Amino acid sequence: MRGLVTAWRAGCGLLALGTVAVAYAFRRPGLDAVDFWSYWTNLSNCLGGLVLLAGALPGRRGGAALDRLRGAAALYLAITGVVYALLLGGEVANWPGWVQHRLMPVALPLDWLLFTPVRRLPPWRTLLAWLAVPLGYLGYVLAHGARTRWYPYPFLNADRYGYPAVAGYALLLAGIFTAAAAALLVWADLRRRLLRLGKRLAGVPSWVRETS
């Protein structure tokens, strides 16, 4: 089982990073490195690929820092898929787009759901840490856009739609981020409790389980 998990993570991690590299190499003319890395899609896929590869390394499973990063990557990529489908039309024109907007937004949350952390993560501290990154990203996009008049996503274009409209989208996304993050943490805690209960029951004689 461990070998299959390692192969899954290594394969998906290499695919994610390779796709980001291809997207960067064949980016459209005029899109410089700063603008390329201003896309949430590229950032989340890069983080997801690195986290999966780290999880595939021998002796790197179960660390608290890696667990927090795994959850963050699962959250950010899930939001990548949801936002692309709901706010950006959801059309995929090539295989890098399919990997970044279809495959990885499923692979990372699935990795979290199937292989939850062994140790309990502090819920409020973890939630706030996960949400701090998209909040910082929003601040960066607005500051960068105010200076360059370029925005990576149309719904964040304050020059075109105004800050009140952008604030509305930001609140919507904040609600989605918070709900998804809470769901990931609740699932991890619930599955850990169920696994612990299963281990306890496995150590109890069958006649005790049948009469309890």
TrEMBL record:
Keywords: Membrane, Transmembrane, Transmembrane helix
InterPro entries listed in its UniProt record: Pr6Pr-like
TM ranges: 39-57, 69-87, 99-115, 127-146, 166-190
NCBIfam families attached to this UniProt entry: Pr6Pr
Name of the protein in question: Pr6Pr family membrane protein
Protein source organism: Actinomadura parmotrematis
